[in-house]
Amino acid sequence: MNLQRLDKIIANQLNIPRSVARKHIRWGKVSVDGKTLRDPSLQISPESEIEYKGESVVYKEHIYIVMNKPKGVLSASEDKKRKTVVDLVAEPIRRSGLAPVGRLDKDTTGLLIITDDGDFAHNVISPKKNVMKTYEVLLDGDITEQMILGFKEGVVLADGTKCRSAELKRIDKNKAEIKISEGKYHQIKRMFGTVGLGVCELKRTALGGFKIPKELNEGESRELSQDEISAIFEDC
């Protein structure tokens, strides 16, 4: 693993400003492999045994977080006026560089992945990887068999954009599960708009083979396990 500056490692892993990390290092609060180091610019291996105030610092190159997104929150890293999903990430797992994987509309709820791993994010949202996104949708009208067949064939949006085949499964007369492998702007709302239906509620329930954890309440977040990360791609 490549060497990194000590102050960068401490700041990133503890989610503190680099300036604070440098001060604490100079004050002797950081040790590496049992030796107190006071030079913030020292290059060390992230695999070293690092301690801060006597507590072990477990290095993670990237972090992967699952959130149950509530309504009214932006799928963005930051916004000067409005609350974002990154603002809601639990403090112990928050760190710099976090961003949502794809976007859920402000009023859409459910499963959202947040990470600082850009390559991973690209693989999840790229249509080429064919990661299915599953949603529950409540509509202002009834779902027909003709709609189910039309979605399977591929909806043509009002602007002429052709969508990939989508799986529409009726749960109730005006409630359905829909699976898509792409994420165009307001895609699901626009798809139902072509058949004259409006979306009242929309919730993402799964990415690939990973379903939103039942114990995760709206607004809550936690780290993903390696098995859960693998489940996202299991059907690709």
Fraction in helix? 10-25%
What is the first-to-last residue Cα distance? 29 Å
Unreliable segments of 5+ consecutive residues = none
Order of helices and strands: EHHEEEEEEHEEHEHEEHEEEH
- How many H/I helices? 7
What Rg, in angstroms, do the CA atoms define?
Answer: 22 Å
Oligomer: single chain
Quantity of strands, as a count = 15
Q: Mean pLDDT, rounded to whole units?
A: 94
Name the shape in a single word.
Answer: elongated
In this structure, how is the largest beta sheet organized? Answer: 9 strands, mixed
Q: Please state roughly what percent of the residues sit in beta strands, choosing from under 5%, 5-15%, 15-25%, 25-35%, 35-45% or over 45%.
A: 25-35%
Sheet/helix structural class: alpha+beta
Quick overview of this protein structure:
The protein is α+β, with helices and mostly antiparallel strands and 236 residues long. It has helices spanning 6-14, 18-26, 85-88, 118-125, 145-153, 187-193, 226-232; strands spanning 4-5, 30-32, 35-36, 43-44, 50-52, 55-57, 64-69, 99-100, 109-115, 133-139, 167-172, 175-180, 199-207, 210-211, 221-223.
Describe this structure in words.
The protein has helices spanning 6-14, 18-26, 85-88, 118-125, 145-153, 187-193, 226-232; strands spanning 4-5, 30-32, 35-36, 43-44, 50-52, 55-57, 64-69, 99-100, 109-115, 133-139, 167-172, 175-180, 199-207, 210-211, 221-223. It is α+β, with helices and mostly antiparallel strands and 236 residues long. The strands form three sheets. Strands 7, 8, 9, 10, 11, 12, 13, 14 and 15 form a nine-stranded mixed β-sheet that branches. A four-stranded antiparallel β-sheet has the order 3-2-5-6. The protein is elongated, with a radius of gyration of 22 Å.
